[in-house]
Amino acid sequence: MTYRRVLASAVFGALLLAGLLWWAGTSAHALSLPGATRFFGPDQANRLAAWTMPWSSESPSSAQFTDPAGAPGHGADYAALRETAMRVRYAALVLFFACGAVPLLRRLSDRGAGRAAVAVAALWGWGIVAAMLAVAVSAPWMVASGGSAAFRLLPGLASAMSQGRELPVGAALVAAAAAVGLMTLLRPEVTLPPGRSVPTVATARLAATVGTAVVAIALVVLSNDRVAGRIQTGFTGNGRLSEPGDLLRQWIQLGAWTLPTGSDPGRWLLYRLGDVALLALVWWGLRLLPVLLDRVTYPAYSLGAVAATTLGVVVSGVWHSLLSYQGSTGGPLLYYVSVGSGVSAALVFGLIAGYAGTLTVRIRSRAQQPVPPTP
């Protein structure tokens, strides 16, 4: 499939994702109306407002934008910084989604329901990561718009980067399905791909096992609460760049777990089922990719590994939310576990797992090639 058709589908999906998030952001002010408060309840309305505000282009009702105190400048200057942050956020969202979707769609462009389903899942996971990267890129402008960029800069960046990661979970699914659907319409009727060497089942399983082992090490070791506590308190100092623990934990922790305590280990095991589902989803995705890709390349396989890890983090978070919701009466939105604590680390360790898996496939495929007969 030509790059022109793939790029058109990727850009269409990126624009649709940005449009859905913009539409949700413009509805943020409606959640403060009395009707919304009565319908959702005050607590759930506030939770929805917190989800939509990071994607809203409107300035929040804050004295910082009207009569700033404690920082030099005028309120209009801070409002302009926030507008710049939102422009950077949406532009980065379109760029990141399109750049990641092109290699995925091109390598999964052959016909077949299996490839279409895997392409939708891969773009879904990548769309969530693209939204996270867009928020991270625009975080410096957002922190500066608060008037406190010079005080504890790194914790402020960590707080700004962890926002806006709930809505893309649903919006990215719609954008992924639309992009794959458009690619199906633009695909030529007859495709005659040249012969390619498909990795064997054993090679695909070995690559999936190697990649899953990378994610498992990060999940078991770095996501432990004791390790997280050491990371949090291991960096001390003074000045603007002090206390980078919050920022570092976002990029290395896929979740959070602790050793079983008390007399009820059964509930602890129930929570660990979410981690098992994460690893199973990663292994399943990495197992399918070598067979479905028209050629195993580092960009496509690594992006697929990132998508699989991200979706695993989402599934684990939903499972933990269901366990927390048992017996509660506060409404489902109040017990939703945010996926923001794991998507950043899913990008880091997904790339490492994808690189390790691709290297495994290439080494095994090279070793299995027949040796030409000597004359």
UniProtKB/TrEMBL annotation:
The keyword Transmembrane applies. The keyword Membrane applies. Keywords: Membrane, Transmembrane, Transmembrane helix. The chain crosses the membrane at residues 88-105, 117-143, 167-186, 198-222, 298-321, 333-356. This is Uncharacterized protein. It comes from Streptomyces hawaiiensis. The lineage of its organism: Bacteria, Bacillati, Actinomycetota, Actinomycetes, Kitasatosporales.
